Amino acid sequence: MKIESICIVGLGYVGLPTAVAFADAGFNVIGADVAENKITTLSSGRSTIPEIIADEKIDSLGSSGKLSFTADVPQAVRDSDAILITVPTPVDSSKNPDLHYIESATESIAKGMGNGKLVVLESTVYPGVTEEVVQPIIEKTTGLKAGSDFGLAYCPERYNPGDEEHTIENMTRVVGAINDEWLAVASEMYSKITKQPVHMVSSIKTAEAAKVIENTQRDLNIGLANELALIFDKIGIDTREVIRAAATKWNFHVYWPGPGVGGHCLPVDPYYLVYKARQLGYSPKIITAGREINDYMANFVVSLVDRALNEKEKSMKNSRVVILGASYKGNVADARETPAKRIVAGLKEKDAEAIIYDPLVEKEELQSWGIKIADTLDEAISGADCVIVHSDHDEFKNLDLDKLASSVRTKTLVDTRAFIDQKAAQERGFLLLRI
């Protein structure tokens, strides 16, 4: 079977770049999303994530006829040979998998399904979701049989927003399918958007497991770096200097500490594996410990603010504390699961006046936090008692310390990214604490 037309269901930070990649590769692509405002924006030739994909790219592909957008998922499925599901997979308040986006998307897809179509799940899940959730919904709705009447596969998304090196075209894609025939079809399709060979595995569950452990491993490595930072803070030595020294050994892998982790992957995906393990009677220990450390780091940032202000004989209560950056990573507008939100909550508990400045994150998102929002960096730091460097945006990498010195009245800085030169800050009268 030859795939010529593709429907992408879910047009967020993964789905939209994926749609663009397949359209660039020559496929006829329909981007489908239930958010009609998003469809309206994209259909007018404007990008919904302009910091990642320029308006010009959306407009150009739309004008060429290779990329179109719709809120009518069933019709988009009818018009396509392959359907890719790229919807969010969050956790609920109990940290259990929340699969309602996948279930809802699959129900819509099933209404447009027909013989000979390929369905691929890209969203991160625990091993078993594709065959235990997606497959039954389609089969029950349509009467079709997976493997014989339609194809089913899993190919984990590997998109890293803002990463100019590890782009979609430079990524090795992992594919698992319901049988060898559909494995060949899916692998051939993905080979068109990457320069790397497609890595085929023996089962869908294997591909699902590969994705979830990628992010679990990274979360654990960052958790170790963060725990080391907590220990070395008590000892009174510089964690980053220690790591640089250790990195002179050939088999040491560098991970830097920070304010915690955010986004749709690291704070969430390990819980999917934990959930599946507990279903099978095993309670993971190392994975959950890493999660606890990374979630705690926002509290640690608040404690550093408290310590710095106390050393300057200033109470946290009613102090003006500025957070530079709301997104979970540099140069993107994604504030999902960001540590900044937990830092804000911690500051509020201490009765501090919290102000945030981020040049990328939408104001509507920040307003939902119940926090004061500054429009410019100068406005943010004016009259501040403490400045927290949170996001590693380029704008914050070379802060003007002289301007800070004339604007920050209590002269305390908490640098979670080690952007600020310690000696230069001290020369200007700052008390600088960092992770």
What does this molecule look like?
This protein is of the alpha/beta class. It folds into 2 domains: 199 residues, NAD(P)-binding Rossmann-like Domain (Rossmann fold, 3-Layer(aba) Sandwich), CATH 3.40.50.720; 147 residues, Rossmann fold. It is built from 16 helices and 14 strands. An 8-stranded mixed sheet has the order 3-2-1-4-5-6-7-8, with helices on both faces. A 6-stranded parallel sheet has the order 11-10-9-12-13-14. The radius of gyration is 24 Å and the shape is globular. The N and C termini lie far apart (54 Å). The model has no long low-confidence stretch (mean pLDDT 95).
Provide a short characterization of the protein structure.
The chain has 435 residues and is α/β, with parallel strands linked by helices.
Helix content: 40-55%
DSSP summary, beta strand count: 14
The chain-level structural class is: alpha/beta
N- to C-terminal distance: 54 Å
**Overall geometric form:** globular
- How many domains comprise the coordinates? 2
Q: Radius of gyration from the CA trace?
A: 24 Å
Task: Profile the largest sheet.
Answer: 8 strands, mixed
Order of helices and strands: EHEHHEHEHEHEEHEHHHHEHEHEHEHEHE
Average the pLDDT over all residues and give the rounded result: 95
Strand content: 5-15%
Give the full name of the CATH homologous superfamily of the largest domain.
NAD(P)-binding Rossmann-like Domain
Q: What is CATH's topology name of the largest domain?
A: Rossmann fold
The CATH architecture classification of the largest domain is: 3-Layer(aba) Sandwich
Question: Quick one: CATH class of the largest domain?
Answer: Alpha Beta
- If strands are numbered along the chain, what order do they take across the biggest sheet? 3-2-1-4-5-6-7-8
Number of helices: 16
Question: Uncertain runs with pLDDT below 50, 5 residues or more?
Answer: none
